[in-house]
Design a protein that fits this description.
Layout: E1 4-11, E2 15-17, H1 30-41, E3 43-49, H2 50-57, H3 60-65, H4 71-75, H5 80-92, E4 94-98, E5 114-117, H6 122-131, E6 136-140, H7 143-151, E7 157-163, E8 171-172, E9 182-188, E10 196-202
Parallel strand pairs: 1-6, 1-7, 3-4, 3-6, 4-5
Antiparallel strand pairs: 2-8, 7-10, 9-10
Organism: Sphaerimonospora cavernae
Protein name: Dihydrofolate reductase family protein
Pfam families: RibD_C
């Protein structure tokens, strides 16, 4: 059985987006990029909401071809290989996007690697994906979707990078649904970064 992992970043005061849905208000530094690539290497499938899917699709194919177009690489050329590999993995990995509005016409250049799942079918499809053999299922962004799956008991781990920023408003990381019990597995820091990575395991209700 495969694990479903969520990798996200939030501010010190608990927001995954700043006011006006400004995700760039979060300190997504090299540590964040390195962790996400690490998780991609251990995963075989990406599971995404429509907004995150369209954002990744509009960004990473160009970076895979030429990492210099990434602002992070422009600021630090040493990040080029990391961003090139991230872009290539995003291009190649199997992707499931949960949306009632997207069509196949919206998926280029990822059409061959993308399956669109309607919202009413999401829990069933995710449960079936988890039952299949293979590597992890990984979620980036997609706050509405992962909160829904978390409440439904389908998420196995939360990897939350807490950024050294206080936004004062925006989109809170967690919704209003009852969040299952979480067990802190480990914490990580990296020299040169003010962010802290918290890895939580979702506790089975029978074991809570």
């Amino acid at each position: 059985m495969r694990k479903l992992l969520v990798s996200t970043i939030m501010s010190l005061d608990g927001y995954v987006e700043g006011p006006g849905r400004d995700v760039m208000a979060l300190p997504m530094d090299g540590f964040f990029d390195e962790h996400n690539l690490e998780r991609q290497r251990a995963a075989g499938t990406l599971l995404l909401g429509a907004t995150t899917y369209m954002g990744l699709k509009g960004y990473w194919p160009a970076v895979a071809e030429n990492p210099a177009v990434s602002p992070a690489v422009a600021a630090n050329p040493d990040m080029a290989d990391l961003h090139r590999e991230t872009g290539k993995r995003n291009n190649e990995m199997r992707k499931f996007v949960v949306s009632d509005s997207l069509t196949e016409d919206d998926t280029a250049p990822w059409t061959d690697s993308t399956t669109i799942v309607r919202r009413a079918d999401a829990h069933k499809v995710v449960a079936e994906l988890k039952e299949q053999p293979g590597k992890d299922i990984l979620m980036f962004g997609s706050r509405t979707l992962w909160n829904d799956l978390l409440v439904a008991g389908l998420v196995d781990e939360l990897h939350v990078m807490v950024g050294a920023a206080v936004l004062g408003g925006g989109t809170p990381a967690f919704g209003s649904g009852p969040v299952p019990s979480l067990r802190l597995v480990n914490t990580r820091r990296r020299d040169g970064s003010y962010n802290v990575l918290l890895r939580y395991q979702v506790v089975d209700r029978d074991d809570a």
